[in-house]
Amino acid sequence: MDTIKLKHYSNTKMIAHRGLSGLHLENTMSAFKAAGRASFYGIETDVHVTKDGRFIVFHDDTTRRLSHINLNIEKTDYATLRLIPIKLHRMPNLSEYINCCKKYNKIAVLELKNPMTKENIEQIIKIIDNSGYIDETIFISFAAQNLTFIRQIIPKQTVQFLTEKFDSNTLDFLVRNCFDLDIRYTSLSHDIVDLCHDNGIKVNCWTVNEPADAERLIDYGVDFITSNIIE
What sign has the CA pseudo-torsion 162, 165, 169, 174? Predict the structure, then answer.
């Protein structure tokens, strides 16, 4: 198997969803390195706060789907999680992910999973800043407060609000908070993309794995497409 390449991309940039997860186990160093070796603009992942206040890379709230051991990520200490077998892999930590993005010169697209404290956000920013990569990081989250904390700490930091739909209140919310948009691709239309752009809002969309869908979204003018397999 290989990645899918499109006939045209216009100005749309491709983001590897949980690394190159169409070919490798999601959110593992193998997936991140494979995305790094490909032509993706950025590499997306998910970060949780562990029970003891450290930062681990994993998507789900529990390990059940990818391990024979079922633990709640945020109720388990970091050392235990690092020992959990995830189909012969181990969970990366935040620094490992950032350093991989830096090695391959990819934008880090970091989803902050679940509501975090401002102290958590400050620690995450410090880890990334110590790696010299904060300017190459886009923060995304379904929890608006997480993004607000980031803006309080770094006012000009790029952030994208994650949502599954676009309704009459979404645009006002984005404009009021100076957030960009990261939305389920099936909720987008050409008019919505134009409306966002007219208001200075960039548009990312997830998770697009069919070439026909990607090409339609490129024609809409989306700024980013997040995909498991389309490079």
Answer: positive
Q: Which residues lie below 8 Å from residue 114, measured CB to CB, with a gap of 6+?
A: 48, 49, 61, 74, 143
Residue whose pair of structure tokens reads 């902050």 in the numeric block: 112
Furthest-apart CA atoms within the chain: distance in Å? 49
Strand bridging mode 180-184 / 203-206: parallel
Q: Kindly state the percentage of the chain with pLDDT values over 90.
A: 99
Where are the strands (E) in the chain, listed by range?
Answer: 13-16, 42-49, 55-57, 107-112, 137-141, 159-163, 180-184, 203-206, 224-227
Task: Give the start-to-end residue ranges of the domains of the chain.
Answer: 13-227
Q: What's domain 13-227's superfamily in CATH?
A: Phosphatidylinositol (PI) phosphodiesterase (3.20.20.190)
The residue assigned the tokens 């991989």 is 100
Q: Report helix, strand or coil for 110.
A: strand
pLDDT of residue 1: 84
In degrees, rounded to 5, the angle at the alpha carbon of residue 75 between the alpha carbons of residues 16 and 118 is 70
Digit-coded pLDDT (tens) for 137-174: 999 999 999 999 999 999 999 999 999 999 989 999 99
DSSP 40: -
Which residue from 62, 66, 122, 58 is spatially nearest to 94, judged by alpha carbons?
58
What number is the average pLDDT over the span 69-83?
98
